[in-house]
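Quick one, tokens below:
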């Protein structure tokens, strides 16, 4: 059963083909259910085969939304029944998967442990900290699909639904019931004070008011966007496109817009009204018309650092992260501005300089206004104003140089821990390393060493750490140190045992204890051990396979190189992988002239081409097959050229790392 390829296919299909107004049932919901299924199933001691069936059912459980909105579970089961035979699933397993999909119908009535696990994962959010934001997305979605609710009506319905709902597995009850009840109690308290907190609004009148103001909002928004750091240098054309993607929201007085700790995926602009930014009862700031908040959530999904509540009835404009990335990919100038923002926020000491810049800018604007009113400017004041600007620019230039120097220093540190490529070329003259970091520093890294007096053992690995840039580089340094400790320190040479110990080391280093609140960081890796004395190849992988071109005889004399892909274990190093997980070792006989390739996912995941799609792993393997007989240095040049041509004007998606080795014994 080839789940990893199936997962990429379905998630890509959902991402591209689901309606954009599925604010709740989007591809992000399917990803969340897959994550929750993995946690609950492990805790419930579900075996590997059953876990594979569960993960497949979770992948397909909302695909029916591609066909219709209501009663779509049957459509998802039909799609699963049609596709799964092509991916190695047997008929009996497909029937179980279809039953699991149908079990998610509301009201849920699961019977088996697998059905209970999937149902609990599907409604996992009811007992999580991000319940209110997800509930808000579901209300918006229902409003789009013929089930409009005022905020008061919605909360009343939520209380009824949550009181009737029950979690079924012991794991979900332990992790979610207490928090879910707190949400019910909080909503009940709000409803009991509804006469003071909520004002019922006729939906038709509200909609008419919004429609009447849409054109005005569009014009005003362009001016507001110019004041937002991310878009200051953008053209009116870019700002107009962004304005067309903004969603208009009507927020009631005292309604919570953002909760501290929730993952962020959008920013807000205040068109009318006032909000307060607060941490519990402490008010940090009050923001009025023309201000904005939550803009950093366009760049990542880190938890919100503070809560935001409406002080008055408000009209807000919301920009979602997906829409922002669409603009990001379309306009290079936006990408350049984002890089500047990231650099300016990389180090904490930059904050004081930015604050000083804003203060000086306000003073300068005030000075210009005064001069405009007086219609008289003196040469002395103009010189002072220009001097302030030059001083500001000089400080910003120094800050940028300081940050850039720090990043370059981090690159030199990372370069120093990477093996010297010439050492591998000495052992295998016909080999190459194609290494193209996305940023100055990389989350991908390679590792190799020789063992034995006659250098009979050669070990090589490629790894893809979580993230890229600075976060990925930190993970790569941890991984490099652990490989040195396991292989060189402890003398472990069996690749499966190396990855088993690496998984334990990563989880210990990052304090990953199996709780859902733990970090999910880790890495994918492919590790090969060449025994040149015995002409054997041993391999183990975590979500990274090995492409092995071996000889097959044709007739009595001729030989051809045929592909044998050795599939890795379908789990990562660290993250949700259990401490006691044992990675498999695969062994093959290898002859002189046979070729192996190991690589991270950056090459295959690069967007580009005529339709701006991913290059895909199957196309990479086809490319390798077409160049396998060429000298290895020529292969490296062709791979690099193809990557550049496919990318075109698109930015590099991820770090790229490909290693090819034509095996020789001496």
């Amino acid at each position: 059963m080839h789940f990893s390829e199936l997962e990429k296919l379905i998630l890509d299909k959902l991402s591209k083909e689901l309606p954009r107004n599925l604010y709740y049932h989007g591809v992000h919901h399917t990803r969340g259910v897959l994550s929750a299924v993995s946690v609950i199933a492990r805790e419930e001691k579900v075996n590997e085969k059953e876990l594979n069936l569960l993960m497949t059912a979770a992948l397909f459980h909302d695909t029916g939304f591609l066909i219709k909105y209501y009663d779509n579970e049957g459509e998802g089961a039909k799609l699963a029944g049609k596709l799964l035979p092509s991916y190695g699933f047997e008929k009996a397993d497909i029937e179980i998967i279809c039953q699991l999909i149908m079990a998610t119908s509301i009201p849920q009535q699961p019977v088996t442990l697998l059905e209970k696990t999937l149902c609990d994962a599907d409604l996992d959010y009811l007992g999580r900290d991000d319940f209110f934001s997800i509930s808000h997305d579901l209300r918006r979605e229902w409003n789009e699909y013929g089930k409009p609710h005022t905020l008061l009506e919605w909360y009343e319905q939520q209380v009824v639904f949550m009181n009737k709902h029950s979690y079924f597995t012991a794991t979900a009850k332990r992790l979610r019931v207490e928090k879910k009840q707190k949400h019910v109690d909080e909503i009940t308290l709000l409803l009991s004070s509804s006469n003071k907190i909520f004002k019922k609004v006729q939906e038709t009148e509200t909609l008419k008011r919004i429609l009447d103001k849409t054109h005005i909002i569009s014009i005003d928004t362009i001016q507001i966007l110019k004041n937002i750091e991310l878009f200051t240098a953008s053209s009116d054309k870019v700002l107009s496109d962004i304005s067309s993607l903004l969603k208009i929201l009507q927020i009631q007085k005292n309604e919570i817009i953002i909760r501290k700790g929730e993952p962020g995926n959008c920013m807000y602009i205040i068109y009318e009204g006032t909000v307060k930014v607060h941490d519990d009862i402490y008010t940090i700031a009050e923001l009025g018309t023309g201000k904005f908040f939550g803009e950093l959530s366009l760049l990542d999904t880190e938890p919100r650092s503070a809560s935001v509540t409406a002080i008055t009835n408000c009209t807000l404009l919301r920009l979602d992260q997906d829409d922002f990335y669409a603009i990001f990919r379309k306009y290079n100038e936006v990408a350049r501005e984002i890089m500047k923002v990231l650099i300016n926020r990389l180090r904490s000491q930059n904050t004081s300089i930015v604050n000083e810049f804003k203060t000086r800018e306000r003073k300068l604007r005030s000075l210009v206004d005064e001069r405009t009113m007086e219609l008289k400017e003196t040469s002395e004041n103009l010189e002072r104003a220009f001097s302030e600007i030059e001083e500001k620019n000089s400080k910003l230039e120094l800050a940028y140089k300081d940050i850039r120097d720090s990043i370059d220093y981090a690159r030199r540190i990372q370069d120093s821990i990477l093996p010297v490529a010439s050492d591998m070329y000495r052992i295998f003259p016909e080999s190459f390393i194609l290494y193209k970091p996305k940023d100055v520093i990389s989350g991908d890294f390679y590792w190799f060493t020789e063992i034995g007096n006659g250098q009979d053992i050669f070990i090589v690995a490629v790894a893809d750490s979580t993230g890229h840039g600075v976060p990925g580089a930190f993970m790569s340094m941890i991984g490099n140190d652990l490989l040195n400790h396991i292989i060189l320190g402890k003398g472990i040479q069996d690749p499966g045992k190396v990855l088993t110990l690496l998984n334990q080391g990563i989880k210990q280093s990052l304090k990953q204890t199996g709780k859902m609140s733990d970090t999910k960081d880790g890495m994918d890796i492919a590790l090969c051990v060449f025994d040149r004395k015995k002409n054997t190849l041993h391999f183990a992988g975590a979500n990274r396979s090995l492409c092995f071109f071996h000889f097959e005889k044709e007739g009595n004399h001729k030989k051809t190189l045929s592909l044998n892909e050795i599939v890795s274990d379908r789990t990562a190093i660290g993250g949700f992988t259990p401490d006691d997980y044992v990675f498999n070792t695969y062994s093959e006989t290898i002859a002189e002239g046979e070729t192996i390739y190991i690589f991270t996912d950056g090459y295959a995941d690069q967007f580009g081409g005529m339709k701006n799609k991913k290059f895909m792993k199957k196309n990479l393997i086809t490319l390798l097959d077409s160049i396998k007989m060429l000298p290895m240095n020529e292969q490296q040049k062709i791979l690099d050229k193809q990557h550049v041509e496919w990318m075109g004007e698109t930015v590099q998606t991820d770090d790229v790392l490909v290693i090819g080795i034509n095996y020789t014994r001496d």
